[in-house]
């Protein structure tokens, strides 16, 4: 099993953060602008762990060189079933430097947006080290 998948399935926040490059860029399924940097990305991912219930990866797809991965998942947010995919690119050191998430259906994406919006003050404080 891929170390990222293992870390997420174990809900191991420290292991997830250790796999992020300092210059990682996180592209949210519900925000207009990407979030650059390890601190904010790690804080967002901790928020996701708090709001998504019954999170399960159902498929993993990798490029032949292992630098690009797609992790297909299912979960529940605010009582709505959500399907999504984490698209990850790994740098030369094996750290995630690009992290893009896509989700469906629209009603679940809206529920995710609301749930993460309610977390965002905490996420911002965590990213600032407070």
Which terms would index this structure?
130 residues, alpha+beta, six-stranded mixed beta sheet, 4 helices, 38% helix, globular
Question: How much helical structure, as a percent, in the residues?
Answer: 25-40%
The topology string of helices and strands comes to HHEEHEEEEH
Report strand order across the widest sheet. 2-1-6-5-4-3
SS-based structural class?
alpha+beta
Question: What's the number of extended β-strand segments?
Answer: 6
Q: Please, what is the average pLDDT?
A: 95
The N- to C-terminal Cα distance equals 34 Å
Major sheet description: 6 strands, mixed
Low-confidence stretches: none
How much strand?
Answer: 35-45%
Query: Rounded to an integer, what's the Rg over CA atoms?
Result: 14 Å
Overall 3D geometry?
globular
Structure overview:
This protein is α+β, with helices and mostly antiparallel strands. Helix content is 38%, strand content 38%. The chain contains four helices and six strands. It has helices spanning 3-9, 13-18, 38-51, 106-127; strands at residues 20-27, 35-36, 53-62, 68-77, 80-90, 96-104. It has a six-stranded mixed sheet. Strand 1 and strand 2 form a beta hairpin. Helix 3 crosses helix 4. The chain starts with a helix and ends with a helix. The mean pLDDT is 95.
Summarize the structure.
This protein is α+β, with helices and mostly antiparallel strands. It has helices spanning 3-9, 13-18, 38-51, 106-127; strands spanning 20-27, 35-36, 53-62, 68-77, 80-90, 96-104.
